[in-house]
Structure formats: C-alpha cells, structure tokens
Amino acid sequence: MATAQLNKSYFNDEAAKYDSKNEKGLQQLTQAIQARLDFIGADWVDDDEDDDAAGGDGRQLRLLDYACGTGMVSRALAPYTTQCVGIDISENMVATYNARAENQGLAKEDMFAVVGDIADPNDPEPTSLSSPELFNFDLAAVGGGFHHFENPKLTATRLVERLRPGGVLFIWDFLTHEPDNHQASHTVTHHGFSEAQVREMFESAGAGKNFALEDLGSGIIVGGHHHGGNSHSHGHHGEGTQPRKRQVFLARGEKL
C-alpha cells in the first residue's frame, strides 16, 4: 500500500481517540508554539484587528494548517490569526477538526478543514484543492507531519506555492533518532531530520529566507495515554500506546 494510503487508513482509525490519547504532548506543543510567536515571525493580529478583519476591514493573517489532524496547530495559533484552513488526507481527522471548531463556536469561514493531498506526484494541481481560498496564505504550518511524508521536499515546495510572497513556512518535527517499533511505525518514512536536511528542504522549496531552527529538547511526550492538563491536531504525532520522548524542533523560513 502506498505511503499516503497507509497514513490515511491509520489516522482515520485514530481520529476519534487522538486528542485524549495524546493530551499531554499536545498541551506541551501548544504551549511551546504560543511561547515562540516571535520566532515564527508571522505578522500576527490581535483581537481588535481580528474583529476588524471579520467585518471586511483591517489586516488579515491566514493560516494553512497542512496534515492538520484534529487541529492543534490551528487552535494554538487561532488567537493570532484571522482564518485557519486545514487540509488532511484523513476524512475522519478533517471531520474531527471541523467538529471541534464548531464546538468552539467558530464560524466556518474562520476555521475549517478539507480533505486533500497536495503532494501527490501524479496530481500536481488537484481539482479539489484549486479554490482561490486555498492559496495566498500568510503562514503555512505542518505539525509533526514531515516524518510521515513520502516526499517531504515535494510537500514543502507545494506548500510554498500556496503562500503569498514573503509568507512564512513553519513546521515542528523530530530531530534525527533511531528507529523504534510502535503501532504507527508503518506510516513513518523518515526517522527525524537533521538541521542541514531541514534547511536544504526549505531552501529547495523557495522558503529559505531568514531560515531558523530551534531545538526544543527531549521533553515532549509522544504517544501513550496522559491526563494532565495541541499534532498533528496538530496533526499526527501520537503514535503508540507507550509514552516516548523525542527531540522536537521548530523551523521557519520565508518565501522569496
């Protein structure tokens, strides 16, 4: 089975339990992202500007959350944006993302997700993802998805194509680590990335301007059932029943 289909099948099965299963790690990642808004470097908006934008006035900041999962990255950054749009290959993850947005009382135009795959080498311009509202983003983010992608470099390139000039590409993922066995190991195509690999990927995609990478250390809990206190919900980082700690990094760069 192709990598994309393996991921689709696995995360369709995981969607209903994903957030509860990975609660602690998602909480840690949310806090880490929100504490590093300056590092990400988007032109964030505040609540007053968000209200103005909703009325058709004021500055906008539109987020594309790719491999969005249940929406952790979107929820972490929603207070600082005017619109969050998710794309995921898993129909059930998209349904959960949209249900959570609706449960928060958000209007559909403020936060919504659609099913799709921008990195299919045989379909460079998918019709289902051709709407103008799926382009010209200020920020494109991927939370924990790159180690699942069959071709991360192609995915990065396709994401940058959906950014406005000067827009920011932002990801979190794992630094290089030894392979291990867990229930999602069949969906993993890369055992983390070195800083040099990430830099080259951003530069090749056309988002190498002001590239920066920050190592968050190894305190992020991955997998397992934790009740403490956002992934893909960010998308798809919880991948097992036993908790593990991995070295997580954040990386960002700007479209040339």
Automatic annotation (TrEMBL):
Pfam family, one: Methyltransf_12
The organism's place on the tree of life at top rank: Eukaryota
Domain Methyltransferase type: 64-169
Record-stated family: Belongs to the methyltransferase superfamily. LaeA methyltransferase family.
Name of the protein in question: Methyltransferase type 12 domain-containing protein
PANTHER family membership: METHYLTRANSFERASE, S-ADENOSYL-L-METHIONINE-DEPENDENT METHYLTRANSFERASE
Classification via InterPro entries: Methyltransf_12, SAM-dependent_MTases_sf
Biased composition (Basic residues): 224-235
Region (Disordered): 222-244
